[in-house]
Design brief:
It is a single chain. The protein is α/β, with parallel strands linked by helices. Helix content is 44%, strand content 17%. Helix 5 packs across helix 7 (130-138) and helix 9 crosses helix 11 (196-203).
């Protein structure tokens, strides 16, 4: 599927819901002049507990939707979709398609000194071994320790990110990493950067926290520069938001994740 696109075309970003807004936030900060279209598949979340086949099907539908908006790049902001669907999405188009796994893995490898890296994410991301696979493609000698931290998602959405309950849950999940002596921890879910302060408090300030969304935004900039697709406009880019269902408290949660008000949100129906 080929589309006409130019440097002024938008970047397409999608996630299973609203967690990917942390990736969008990094894109806004690193590429303020870029036009961005974000789609959250809020009607069918979460992806982390679904089969590889189902996640791939949903991801293909969303990518086709974004390609019909003539995007110049597709950013798969969902860790689960990045881990299972990326290879299929790249076959759909000549537009660059990037996930969050590889940039996060690369950053972690560059940070570690003792060759011991921790990964936290949803059940789907952890069971896919996607981060471990990417890390070992770069360096086979690195030890990778993974843990699913499903409750972090609800804590982030409820705004319970910096209280006793968040700290208690974080201790329950993360204490075992101390016995593994990791020096770097990948936040392998787009919700987790919201809990960065509490996670850092529990694992210790000396451990490098890798925000995969932030690293992905840096990689997006590098790719656009290389392909001469950076938007040269002087004004701030336009941001459009699409969802497949309006959830209760959507606006409140979204603005917490994005760190700014959201105005242009539309509900869409995806065609198979």
């Amino acid at each position: 599927m080929k589309k006409n696109y130019s440097s002024k075309s938008p970047i397409g970003v999608f996630d299973s819901g609203i967690g990917g807004l942390t990736v969008a936030k990094s894109l806004f900060e690193i590429l303020p002049n870029e036009n961005i279209i974000y789609l959250g598949d809020t009607a069918r979340l979460p992806y982390g507990t679904k089969s590889k086949e189902t996640v791939t099907k949903y991801s293909i539908e969303i990518t086709k939707f974004l390609l019909n908006k003539n995007v110049k790049m597709v950013v798969v902001a969902c860790n689960t979709a990045s881990s299972v669907a990326l290879q299929y999405l790249k076959k759909l188009t000549d537009v660059p398609v990037i996930g969050v796994i590889r940039p996060g893995a690369k950053a972690a490898v560059s940070k570690t000194n003792n060759y011991k890296i921790g990964v936290i994410g949803t059940l789907g991301t952890v069971h896919s071994f996607a981060y471990k696979t990417q890390i070992h493609k770069i360096d086979r000698d690195i030890n990778v320790f993974s843990k699913a931290c499903s409750l972090f998602v609800q804590l982030a959405e409820d705004g319970w990110t910096d209280n006793k309950i968040a700290e208690m849950v974080a201790k329950e999940y993360l204490t075992e990493f101390k016995s593994h002596d990791i020096d770097t921890l990948i936040l392998g879910c787009t919700h987790y950067p919201i809990l960065k302060k509490t996670i850092s408090k529990v694992v210790g300030k000396k451990i490098h926290l890798i925000d995969s969304g932030e690293e992905t935004a840096k990689e997006v900039k590098r790719i656009l520069e290389y392909k001469d697709l950076l938007n040269k406009q002087k004004k701030a880019g336009r941001h459009k938001f699409f969802v497949t269902d309006f959830q209760k408290k959507f606006k409140e949660i979204s603005e917490r994740f994005l760190g700014q008000p959201i105005y242009d949100v539309r509900k869409v129906r995806l065609e198979s």
